[in-house]
Amino acid sequence: MSSEEVEKLHEIYKSLYDELKLMPDRALRCHGEEKKKLIRAFDERQGEAEEVLQGMEEELRSAPSSYRNAMTTKLRLYRRDLGKLQREIRSPDVGFGSSSRPVEGAQQGIYSSQNQHSTHLQSQRALLLQGTESLNNATKSIERSQRIAAETDQIGTDVIEELGEQREQLERARNRLVNTGENLSRSRKILRAMSRRLMTNKLLLAVIILMELAILGAVVYLKFFRK
């Protein structure tokens, strides 16, 4: 609940009520179609005031109990005042009674002053409504920014987690490469040892062959050539 929002609605209601409370006196000087037009304008302003009061009630639902109780009492008084003004402007006595009518010149002066005051109140009410709308738009913009920030934070968290997983995969791959390198080194040592043994075997085989040829030559010489 925003107490600032309640205060703004309260100012709008005061502006509307200040305009409404002048209308019964204006109705005393109106007749016929002009009076009907004034009553229609009164009904429109009263409807707007009722909407403002309803908006205040909605804002007060989540307010602290002490503040809500005080404002609820005020809202009941405001509705009572609106009902009183409605009874006054629809009273059958409105528009009659010569003793209560001012002279023509004074009547026009009061009417002009009231028109100026009403115009000023309407201008203030429009500014308040515009300010309230701007505040609502700013609040929505802040909420959107917060949602975007939350989404960005979530994306960042996901990226960090994914990078952590990729780091673990790279470390496992590096460990496998290290193990593979060690295995290759052992394989090279084994191959070199096998190569040395093969060369040794070849040399031994060559020596044996040479010795066998020498023995065979000696036997042939002794048997066939020596007398």
Fold topology:
Elements: H1 3-20, H2 23-27, H3 32-60, H4 65-89, H5 104-225
Helix pairs in contact: 1-3, 1-5, 3-4
Structural class: mainly alpha
For the residues shown, what is the average pLDDT?
Answer: 79
User: What is the CATH homology-level superfamily of the domain at 3-156?
Assistant: t-snare proteins
* Gap between N and C termini: 136 Å
What value does the Rg take, in angstroms? 53 Å
Helix tally equals: 5
- Return the CATH topology of the domain at 3-156: Methane Monooxygenase Hydroxylase, Chain G, domain 1
Query: For this structure, what is the CATH class of the domain at 3-156?
Result: Mainly Alpha
Subcellular location: Membrane
InterPro entries: SNARE, T_SNARE_dom, v-SNARE_N_sf, Vesicle_trsprt_v-SNARE_N
GO cellular component, one term: cytosol
GO biological process, one term: regulation of protein localization to plasma membrane
